[in-house]
Fold:
Amino acid sequence: MNIQVTRLLTLVPYLQARGWVDVADVADDFGISKQQLLRDLEILVMCGLPGGLPDDLIEIDLEVARDEGVVHLRNAPDLRPFRLTADEATSLLVAVEAVREVADADTAASAQRVLDKLTTLVGGQANVSIEVASGDDAVRNQLTAAIKGSARLQLTYDGAARRQTTHPVVDPLRIEVRDGASYLVAWAVEREDWRWYRLDRIAEVSSTDQPAAKHSPPPVATGWFDELSSSNRVELELDAEAAWITEYYPTLAVEPLEGGGVRVALSIGDPGWLTGLLLRLGPYLRSVAPADAATEALTEAKMALKIE
Structure:
């Protein structure tokens, strides 16, 4: 539906419920300029019930609205005010809360004002509280500024997969939220490809004093593992005490084992991440297939045992 038509349908019950109201207040509530509101009112006075006779049309004194800055609507058809369902209210609150969690200071403040208004409007229909791993506020503000200014950056990134800190030079594109965590979508200059960096693992951001280059759009995927082949599949047989990994990581298949325990199939994007997982599982890990997927973990475990 046309945005202005939607606004006009909402404006009629809004004005009906308030009597005389300041033009500036109406414009502020609808997020439009006073000039746009006056143009909307000029359309409303030509609307009403079928027939088009004077008593059929909505009545608004446009001169009073222009000169004195107040508006009063009369003779309008009975339109019910717009009401959000509980599900609609919850979805909207979650979306705005997610924006607030990952935005820069100015946008976060605007999102908070929207949240306050929505919470007041929906009352007890929805009670929303979400947590997004969005990293340090100062880092996020630097990233947002670089995205707006198309600036190239160098990150200090604590990668969980390889368990080491790297310093990639990137051209930042946007910040997005996936599965409760916020990510910087950026072109990695050295790798010459798009990468996703978790914001809570970016320890520091440094300027390179260079502009970001233009790149083709990043790939669109419905999930993290869409493009992985069967060669990335690893199967683990675990004791029951290690079955918790099925609740924390995406799995391809889960199969209970006789006598307790579970067989889990995972799609591995980085061998370093798998090494860290196998070391965490420790004595609860029964077998790994293919066996060579555990080679690095076995080597690290043997080195650790030699440490006195």
